[in-house]
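[stage:ingest] chain + small molecule (6-O-phosphono-beta-D-fructofuranose)
[stage:ingest] validated
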Amino acid sequence: MSVTFDYKNAMSFMKKTEMENLSQFVKQAHHQIHTHQGPGSDYLGWVEWPIQYDKDEFERLKSAAKKIQEQSDALIVIGIGGSYLGAKAAIEALSHTFHNQMEGTTEVYFAGQNISSTYIEHLLQVLEGKDISINVISKSGTTTEPALAFRIFREFMEKKYGVEETRNRIYVTTDKTEGALRNLATEEGFETFVIPENIGGRYSVLTPVGLLPIAVAGLDIDAMMAGAASAYHQYNNPDMTTNGCYQYAAVRNIFNNKGKSIELLVAYEPSLRYVAEWWKQLFGESEGKDSKGLFPASVNFTTDLHSIGQYVQEGRRLFIETAIQIKKSSVERTIQADENNMDGLNFLSGKTMDEVNKKAALGTTLAHIDGGVPNLLIELDELNEYTFGELVYFFEKACAISATLLGVNPFDQPGVEAYKINMFALLGKEGFEEERNQLEDRLEKISGE
Ligand SMILES: O=P(O)(O)OC[C@H]1O[C@](O)(CO)[C@@H](O)[C@@H]1O
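[stage:predict] done
[stage:export] tokens:
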């Protein structure tokens, strides 16, 4: 087991019996998920995915990644939400911190995750003179942000390469049969990869959605799938006393019921920043509905100990804290003695930076417990493709169990439509006339007040 869960630092804030009382509900949730029942049961394809994924497509995907590496200096990954965050999380966590600046790598850039003209313009400037390929990813095929970015990049590429060669450089990841992007890909003859219909966006990182960009970045996707498969077997166990994934789900539920409103995901490695962003979408879209759910937030320590750390220590007691720790750092750096010791740091000489980081983490945990923040710990032996795959599956399953305990549908996200409807109405999209009139009346009233 290379990913473990430990909640001993939360025990002073809860009772053992609270866990015991939840075990039967956790068993029910397990059964529901493994028999593909319950709310949102059409989206449970991720459960067996690590042991049932399409191996032929997986091999074709690896060939496409190789082709992209050969044909291009840079890959532009166009997508948003679940069609973006998983790949971004993996590449940031597992590649060189300055991947795009390193010799001999295929650079990977992301677009379509915002509507900023400045971002797109600056990206186009960076790409000037480089050979590029595109992987456009959208399950629905109609999401505004990536569709807009795709338009811009297609035009840019057609000017640069002509229509024929552009076709050879566009890779589409979308639904198997439906949607605007599927239709376009069929018409244009783009190479395509499938987002399984029974896997929702935020559960899709281990499908071609995440795997193609991750493979282009030079990472070992075989090891990643092997890690996820190992997690599938480890956590296919309804007994909460031996299932760390389910313990995590249960502890979250206990603190949610006690009135905590925020879960802070804490990492001491900057490379985990986008793992936290991916995790926020996973839990935020799965649980944040019917006026329920812990708000998923994240901090990067020790950086943020010098900013938001004050609030965590002494502000309103809203939080539980879940730290992700990597036991063995991928790089060791020993601190040297300094003859003059002007900074007074010679007491650290001979220690590694990672030892200091770990003591900072321990000191923080103890301080936060004293400050009334229950602390949970997820530990990885090392950070590599295998453990990343395990961690993804750990969180996916914990989230499904946690949302089921909460009594919400873990796999829909109806609330995301609200901003889209307003945006379309304000932009005058056909079919949104009534909403537009209502919004204009409302805006007039506000400005008249
Ligand atoms: O892959 P798509 O269909 O473009 O969706 C992207 C993201 O947008 C959402 O549907 C929300 O609008 C997310 O759930 C999803 O991950």
